[in-house]
Every structure is written in C-alpha cells, then in structure tokens.
Amino acid sequence: QLHLVESGGGLVQPGGSLRLSCAASGFSLDDYAIAWFRQAPGMEREGVSCITSKAHNTYYSDSVKGRFTIVREDAENMVYLQMNSLKPGDTAVYYCAADYLEYSLCVNWRNTSRAVWGQGTQVTVSS
C-alpha cells in the first residue's frame, strides 16, 4: 500500500522555526510531484508549497514565499518543508500529497484521484 507520513509539527512561538517531514512507504517518490497543503479550522484547504519530480522546480503560495523552503531527498524517499519566521496565521494541520500531474498539483493546487495523501501534522504558532 502507498503511504505518506508527516511529522515534525508542534507548538512554536511567533518568529520560530519548524521542519516538517514527509516520508513515503510502499512506493518511490521519484516520479511524483510533492506538495504541502494546510487547513486551519473553519478554513478551506490551502496549497502551501510544491516541488516537481525531475527538475525539482519549486512553487510557493504568496503567504509563505520567502519564509518556507521545500526540499526533496529522493534517495531517502523524503520531502521536507522548512518553515521559518512562523506567524500565528500559519497555524493549521499540514498535509503532504504526491501526484503524477505536476502542473495541476503545483500550479493549480489540485490533485487527481490517484494522489496519495498523508494523515497530517498539527502546527501551532502561539505565544
């Protein structure tokens, strides 16, 4: 079975940093684009960052550009999201998703029915 597992969430003060991890099992991430989404209570799911499979092109939402960095380590079958200068508005459950259609995932923030999703990790930014 195909699984993605997120980790690294937690409680952090404003201005702090966290690094989220997305680990794949049951399949190789090599041919997939990987995106991070987040969803805050009462809000719609929001695309945060995405990285393509071969060229490793990266995409960011305007709300996180300059603060977040997405990196993939295909040899480890892992993707990371380094989050710096965190704000209370970054509080949400963060999910990683893997999908074949890179343009759809990374530009339109839309997944196909074949996308693989993780269970999410909570990030709370509060003093």
Structure write-up:
The protein is mainly β and 127 residues long. Helices cover 4% and strands 46% of the residues. The radius of gyration is 13 Å and the shape is globular. The termini are far apart. The mean pLDDT is 96.
What keyword list fits this structure?
single chain; mainly beta; seven-stranded mixed beta sheet; 11 strands; 4% helix
Report how far apart the termini are. Answer: 40 Å
What's the helix-strand series? Answer: EEEEEEEEEHEE
Mind telling me the C-alpha Rg?
13 Å
Mean pLDDT: 96
Low-confidence segments: none
Query: How many β-strand runs?
Result: 11
Class by SSE composition: mainly beta
Main β-sheet description: 7 strands, mixed
Helix content: under 10%
| Morphology | globular
Number of helices: 1
- In percent terms, what proportion of residues is strand? over 45%
Q: Could you outline the blueprint of secondary structure elements for this entry?
A:
Blueprint lengths: L2 E5 L2 E3 L5 E8 L7 E7 L6 E6 L6 E3 L7 E6 L4 E6 L8 E8 L2 H5 L9 E2 L3 E5 L2
Parallel strand pairs: 2-11
Antiparallel strand pairs: 1-3, 3-8, 4-5, 4-9, 5-6, 7-8, 9-10, 9-11
Summarize the structure.
This protein is mostly beta strands and 127 residues long.
